[in-house]
Write a structure and sequence with these properties.
Elements (H helix, E strand, L loop, with lengths): L3 H15 L13 E4 L2 E4 L24 H4 L7 E5 L5 H10 L4 E6 L2 H14 L4 E5 L12 E7 L8 H11 E14 L5 H4 L3 H4 L8 H11 L2 E11 L3 H4 L5 H10 L3 E9 L11
Parallel strand pairs: 3-4, 3-6, 4-5, 6-7
Antiparallel strand pairs: 1-2, 7-9, 8-9
Length: 276
């Protein structure tokens, strides 16, 4: 991949194509799907027991359950970044209730259309889906009580800019809870540059320490990893994009891919009491 625009165009094309095929044929290894012809559940977790879950909105493309850890309250304004067909947004709506509001943002037109159709079928008038880029969120400052995202930020080329936008859109005292994929060490160049692995949520991955440092440098406080687990990806998935020698070197490196759920808060403004 040569530049950020090329990366975004590639990912957008891949995710748009997912809606035109059965879930069992999904080619994104970010979730349950058929990679190299075998049905794997690699990154995704089971939503079916969560209130608000809608099977039509579950494309199996996530890597965690961010709403489970998001501390959403009734009446909250919640934003779901990279909302896909609406899965996490509908679960969030079940928590925030009729007095709250959920806004899903996706940069793929086909996903926005699908999620809007799903919301209409469910009769939800306080769940809206809009077209937008996470690096330039088309929403007002200090809007959201809570932001969630599921295995999407690792696909964003400029993660610093994405977290600055998350900070901007959150209300003071608001927080985010995101599921994402990070690495325990430095990924080999062959993996980081493989186009197909961007849509598989691998090539865009950065080190866990770097990921958390970006969040801290953005200004967030009370940062904590709520959950993490090592992801095991079958060799033939990697071999679709890199050579056998590159795969051997990756295994020798001892680097692991890790699904994490991260929480952080936007601080309240400091009020000077004026006392000497």
């Amino acid at each position: 991949m040569k530049d950020n625009k090329e990366i975004k165009d590639f990912v957008k094309e891949k995710y748009a194509s997912i809606l035109n095929q059965p879930q069992s044929d999904n080619k994104s290894c970010c979730g349950g799907g058929s990679c190299s012809g075998v049905d794997y559940t690699i990154f995704s977790e089971d939503y079916s027991s969560l209130k608000g879950y809608n099977p039509e909105a579950d494309l199996g493309l996530g890597c965690g359950l961010p709403t489970e850890f998001a501390l959403i309250k009734e009446g909250d304004v919640v934003i779901d970044l990279g909302s896909g067909a609406g899965n996490d947004a509908f679960v969030a709506r079940a928590i925030t209730g009729e007095n709250g509001k959920v806004i899903g943002i996706d940069f793929t037109e086909e996903m926005v259309k699908k999620s809007t159709e799903n919301a209409a079928k469910l009769g939800l008038n306080n769940v809206n889906f809009i077209l937008g880029d996470i690096e330039n969120i088309p929403l007002n400052t200090d809007l959201a009580d809570v932001i969630v995202s599921n295995c999407v930020l690792n696909l964003v080329p400029d993660k610093n800019k994405a977290f600055r936008e998350i900070f901007r859109v959150l209300k003071p005292g608001g927080h985010f809870s995101v599921s994402d994929i990070v690495a325990s060490g430095e990924l080999p160049e062959s993996l980081r540059s493989a186009a197909e692995l961007y849509a598989g949520c691998v090539a865009g991955v950065i080190k866990k320490e770097e990921y958390l440092e970006i969040i801290e440098n953005t200004g967030f406080e009370n940062i904590r990893v709520q959950k993490e687990r090592i992801i095991s990806i079958p060799d033939d998935i990697f071999l679709n994009s890199i050579s056998e020698n590159d795969l051997i070197n990756f295994k020798k490196s001892g680097v692991n891919l890790i699904s994490i759920n991260v929480y952080a808060e936007k601080p309240e403004p400091y009020l000077d009491s004026g006392c000497c």
